[in-house]
Amino acid sequence: MSIKITAKYVKELRMKTGAGMMDCKKALEESDGNIKEAINNLRKKGLASATKKAHRITAEGLIQSYIHAGSKIGVMLEINCETDFVARRSEFHELARNIAMQIAACPTVEYVNIEDIPSEVINIEKKIEAGKKDLNDKPLDIRNKIIEGRIQKRLEELSLMNQVFIRDSEIKIHDLINHNISLLGENIKIRRFCRFVLGESLDKKSNSFVQEV
């Protein structure tokens, strides 16, 4: 009888190997839930080394653009890898397009990682949460824990790497990146992106041409 592969098992294997979520899940399924056997299988396939590549310099890559249906939303993305060889691979181009589509679908995302969020933004969020009336009657220690949890949730909403992948709800963008690091054998970094929304920040006129005349 096969063991049910839970998210907890997948997370444990990922923490031990640095391999992507998808690779960990597959390895656990193939080993019938045996962690040690799954680790050995990942090592044989060369997939247990994503974290070891994290500090390699990424000076190549590409600029990916994406225009959402209807031409109302556009994205420009710079994604980097180590060599021009990988930058030309179809898998890398597919990854870049998937991430650009993710950004288009996530209006709350403003930063690549939580670590990129400026301290002044975090402080503003803390003041907002601390001032909410539903916390007034809470004991101080519970109040602080609630605020901390809400802040963490808000920071994750702002971070691209913490988003659930729109094409696979079982993984997040950082898992997708790690999977492709293992697949392509090079470090991969999302350097920057910009999301455009048609008419954003513009005051739209309510008066018609006839009224103006």
TrEMBL record:
Residues 33-200 form the Translation elongation factor EFTs/EF1B dimerisation domain. It is found in: Cytoplasm; Mitochondrion. Keywords: Cytoplasm, Elongation factor, Mitochondrion, Plastid, Protein biosynthesis. Its main location: cytoplasm. Pfam families: EF_TS. One of its GO terms (cellular component) is mitochondrion. GO terms for molecular function: translation elongation factor activity. Coiled coil: none annotated. PANTHER family: ELONGATION FACTOR TS (PTHR11741), ELONGATION FACTOR TS, MITOCHONDRIAL (PTHR11741:SF0). Associates with the EF-Tu.GDP complex and induces the exchange of GDP to GTP. It remains bound to the aminoacyl-tRNA.EF-Tu.GTP complex up to the GTP hydrolysis stage on the ribosome. Belongs to the EF-Ts family. This is Elongation factor Ts, mitochondrial. It comes from Lympha mucosa. The gene is tsf.
